[in-house]
Amino acid sequence: MAEGAEVSDAIAVERTLAGDRDAYRVLVERHSRMVYRMAYRMTGDAHEAEEVVQEAFVRGFQKLRQFAGQANFGTWVYRIAANYAIDRMRQRKAEEARVATPSKPKEESLEVDPMSQVRDLAPSPERLAESGQLGERMRAALETLSAAERTAIVMRHWDGCGIEEIAAVLKSNSNATKNTVFRAVQKLRRALEPFLEGKARAMGTEG
Length: 207
Known about the structure:
The protein is mainly α. The protein has helices at residues 9-17, 21-43, 46-62, 64-67, 73-99, 125-143, 147-158, 163-170, 174-204. The chain is built from 9 helices and no strands.
């Protein structure tokens, strides 16, 4: 399907339903990166995020006739992935609660939102260290959130999703979803405040 870049999602869906598997590959290649970013932010683990992506597109393929072009395909498969990620997070927390032992620290910290970072062409070792520290603080802070809170904060503040879209994923109503987003923001602020205040004090003493 050499013309994949020019094929719309709707046409790719139609061709997939007609038996053209290459057409579904176009959809996977087009939307997998977006789904992976969301899954990684929610799970905090690269391997789990890859499994979420794979499962989301498998489920998407299996349920494609239910989709039938009634929504944006990217949004649809994003919701499938978000729901599966929520299930995985809840299952993981349940398993951790059963063994009642501290979870092993992850080898890689959750990525910091790149839009909030100043991109230097040649960042200093100090700036790189600070970025790593902030990323680790953010990962730890996100771990304190419930699955619903983590989903809400990722969808709202990283991916820019609307309240109605988040509510659909959480199977909740708009008011409850707004409260979930608010709680998540407040928890993250409280968790990150000591670190950010410490950096502000350090900057105030420079020079």
